[in-house]
Amino acid sequence: MSHPATIKLSVLDVAPVWNGSSQAQALRDTLQLAPKVEGLGYHRYWVAEHHNTLSIASSSPPVLVAELANATSTLRVGSGGVLLPNHPPLVVAEQFGTLEALHPARIDLGLGRASGTDPVTAMALRRAGGGGDFRQQIAELEGYFADRGGGEDPRSGAVAVPAPGHRPGMWVLGSSPASARLAAELGMPYAFAHHIAPQNAVQSLNLYRREFRASVHLEQPYSIIASSVIVADTGERARLLAGPLTVIGLQLRTTGTSGPMLGPEEAAAYPFTPLERQIVGEGSGHHLVGDPEAVGRGVRDLLAATRADELMALTMVHDPAERLRSYELLTEIVPLAAPSLA
């Protein structure tokens, strides 16, 4: 099966915090970027939930989504994702029901089953009543958006005002065949994190399409492939801009934590040991980094292999102008599909 000549392009953002800057500036950068990529024709803009990570400021997706919706007019905005075990489904339904009521047909609620943090922070988050089985949490959440309260959960007779009648676009997020199978069984759209587990992409998306069951909300399978993408006018410049990803990837893989992200020149001067160079070499091969020709080939190969319906680019670049330039070049590489509400 060949992939269509046009495809929807979207943005995944984590509000990266750069060395010498601040978390507040990272959030402002996100709010300034969204209307600019909207002007380039991008389809949706998602922010990801992380906690206790000094290099990422997107700890509260619903708050940030509200600001993004107010800063734009045509983009679908949402979570990529809300990590459902961290939150009572009632609260999530209230938050995203409110967002959908205020911005009809523009809100997405991507749902993940990970914690997005270290074990100690996860325990602190889950003291509020989250946790539990992911499938059951999704069912409870669906109930709040319908007219039956919290679904089949006998503890959930409450109405999540104003969620009933204001269901956002709901997605299953994941990086494994297990998440793909769940999305297929529930008849939900599926977003795969290629930047996290590229080795699982083809198997997971093939499984999702093969086992998909139509639902009242989705008749045919629909998938996003989210990937790390950095495009610059030259390959040399793109590789320099991608240097901070190499350093932070090393930090996360070796210590599990990271501070603010280094700038490209700082990253270029980082004193890697031979073992560290081997580690980062193993972890960076799945990034789409280079000049337009090289990234174009990578994108075409990725879409042909996964047959995803939409490409979502995570572009962590230090300079806002060069970050925007990467998104601009990507639209020249990948012809945009016509906008829609899907």
UniProtKB/TrEMBL annotation:
Keywords: Oxidoreductase. GO terms for cellular component: cytosol. It holds the Pfam family Bac_luciferase. The keyword Membrane does not apply. InterPro entries: Bact_Lucif_Oxidored (IPR050766), CmoO-like (IPR019949), Luciferase-like_dom (IPR011251), Luciferase-like_sf (IPR036661). The keyword Oxidoreductase applies. Its EC number is 1.-.-.-. One of its GO terms (molecular function) is oxidoreductase activity, acting on paired donors, with incorporation or reduction of molecular oxygen. Residues 10-304 form the Luciferase-like domain. To bacterial alkanal monooxygenase alpha and beta chains. This is MsnO8 family LLM class oxidoreductase.
